[in-house]
Specification:
It contains seven helices and twelve strands. By secondary structure, the chain is of the alpha+beta class. It is elongated and about 75 Å long. The relative contact order is 0.17.
Length: 304
Amino acid sequence: MDDAGADTVFRTFLLSFKGDSCAVDTPGILPGITTYIVRSFDGAALQFSFPLIVRRDLPEETGLDPAGSDGAVSALIECIKDQAPKIPALGPLYGNGITGSMRYHDTIEPYTIVHSDNAIGSNLWKADSRNFCDRAGVHLVIRGALPWPAVPADHDCLRISGQLPDLAEAVGALVQKTPLFPLRTPWLASLDQKLIRNDLAERGLVSFVGDGSHLARTFTQNRPFFRVAGPKEGVSVPFCCPVELDPVKLELPASNRTVTGLGIRQREVFAIAGSNAQGKTTFLEGILAGMDDHAPPMTAGNWL
């Protein structure tokens, strides 16, 4: 038997899979983009991708503005990543059982951005135009890798014919059983950030840095750019606007909370000075990162 057996199994899965909680998202199938199964460059694995739709109407459940729905999808994806090492059926997400499987761990790398209009971190799994929710359900593109010998046998095809639906069902079950309450928080956080960003000009501002923001970043192999790197681990001093700079107070329109921080005003010359390694670049990067919607801190205890 050769790799054609895997192709047959994959096509059968795409055409016939309908699980208890989910199904293949047929309209989302884009051959070679969202949908493929190919042998890895080192020959040790089958890399795959397929679109999945989970039966859950989050817009109806929340009753919130759909503009913030990417926050909830982001939280669901992070929940799946967190649970992947604990649930055997989710092992293909990170190439479990494959020699050198660390190369597939970008799929479960944590991601602290809800949304970015720039094409950064495109190798990471995150809420975007193909990972979203609507009234039909939660749409996710599932990527990963499966162990695959140089000369596959019938039992190898039988194995992957079970692993693919098991993976889909495990993802679907997690999405369905995640409580609504912890999904509302990131939904509102995403919506708040979008609304504030759109309202800055009317307030005479070009940028806003909120008090309590952790601007220092932790870089990883999969998140080497500050816009997608997570908050610094260990000692991380939160930002606080000095009283001398007249802190701005903003009302968060979606969550009905208020936040204070530094507002950089239109037609204002704003200078940042200091010695080496005192955080000038970190602060400027924090201002630039205001173009993104950042996810609120979540833990597995919030999700399940």
